[in-house]
């Protein structure tokens, strides 16, 4: 029975002997002899853990809590590896929070020890190692919170007693953790540190509404008023009371407005961004179709977007300086197959095997400039098509080959006929001209007078040679030089001959027809032409 009673005593709740609370942390001292594991469990039952001393702030809190009492108190340090590591700041020890982070240490000795070791702190604030199963004189607990409530402002004749969730009591706390209570016996009032609707912590009570204004403004966030014995709170303009009757909030707090909430007195209205309109529910926003609401909003194409619109251009145009500029005339061209831009517009063209229809320039028709071409066949219907003037090759039973049809064998022309791939051409004899594509008519005398007849001027007919004329032969430059020299020599010879004949016929007779004066000279073989020679002899 004695052992059972001892065990029960060990597990009974223990009240802290002193507590220091900051904005986010509370530190408590428990004077109860416990081994390390039991001390750690006691801290956890209160929502905390054995104290971690990572800075001088925590060390200062320990100094205040000890209050000149001596003893060894467990800290939240225990050895993880088999032995200590003197070179490390924590010497291989680990915090009960599972980490090794610290900016502070204060070891009493640095010797190397092994085994199950934990750490205590004494009045000198030095850290000492001891076996974890040995009881220490007490332990230090640490409690962490996201926020706290400030102590209530002092009021004359009112005494306040605070109690923390982990059992610490007193009236000199600077900050209180969540779920702490404040008891004011003179008012028979108990307040609790709880979270308010708009966020944060504040003192409140289970009953909505204000308490007497002389204690912390009756708990009012705004103004506290007392009419008779009934205090009440009021809020400044643009705010309304929350459900607790003490705190104030904006009417837009929690409002369902999708975009904007505007406060109007004690209520609100929802508004939407530009490009949206308020839906029927008064809070949602729907996109405006700007393109439908404003006619001709864009020059060519208007595209509605979430909260706005965009202007686009048709194919063949591009956006330049906010305007659609034409970059191709082919966009509106009715070309059946292909189109190309030209300086003054567009021109239709066709793919291989087709040519532009001379009657309808925007359409294409099958075309072949040889006597044999492949047919245009539909793979689904297995039907084939040939260009004008061609037929499917029946002689070879080929359904995919087109051969030229010889129209000249069909007596299309009245006189002469010339066949060519895909067509033919008729010719008329001399004195006739084509009347239409096939027939010839006789040319009248009036037509032969040409432009003076004034009625009809026949187009010149290109004669068809009976045989192919020989190709022009280009002479070598040396041959040309030889021919030129020969022609020049012949011309000079004719010129010399002409000069000699002219000289012979035009010479005076005295210089030609006479005998010499010397009797010993032979007579010249020239006979006198006139009697002038005898007269000359007489003079001699």
TrEMBL record:
Gene3D superfamilies: Laminin, Mannose-Binding Protein A, subunit A. Its main location: membrane. Pfam families: EGF, EGF_CA, EGF_Tme5, hEGF, Lectin_C, THBD. GO terms for molecular function: calcium ion binding; carbohydrate binding; transmembrane signaling receptor activity. GO terms for cellular component: cytoplasm; membrane. Interacts with ITGAL, ITGAM and ITGB2. Interacts with thrombin/F2; this interaction switches the specificity of thrombin from a procoagulant to an anticoagulant and antifibrinolytic protease. Interacts with ANGP1 and ANGP2; these interactions significantly inhibit the generation of activated PC and TAFIa/CPB2 by the thrombin/thrombomodulin complex. Interacts with PF4; this interaction enhances generation of activated protein C. Interacts with HMGB1; this interaction inhibits HMGB1 inflammatory activity. Residues 449-468 are annotated as: Disordered. The keyword tRNA processing does not apply. One of its GO terms (biological process) is positive regulation of axonogenesis. It is a single-pass type I membrane protein. It comes from Strix occidentalis caurina (northern spotted owl). Residues 287-325, 404-441 form the EGF-like domain. Residues 22-134 form the C-type lectin domain. It is found in: Membrane. Endothelial cell receptor that plays a critical role in regulating several physiological processes including hemostasis, coagulation, fibrinolysis, inflammation, and angiogenesis. Acts as a cofactor for thrombin activation of protein C/PROC on the surface of vascular endothelial cells leading to initiation of the activated protein C anticoagulant pathway. Also accelerates the activation of the plasma carboxypeptidase B2/CPB2, which catalyzes removal of C-terminal basic amino acids from its substrates including kinins or anaphylatoxins leading to fibrinolysis inhibition. Keywords: Disulfide bond, EGF-like domain, Glycoprotein, Lectin, Membrane, Phosphoprotein, Proteoglycan, Repeat, Signal, Transmembrane, Transmembrane helix. This is Thrombomodulin.
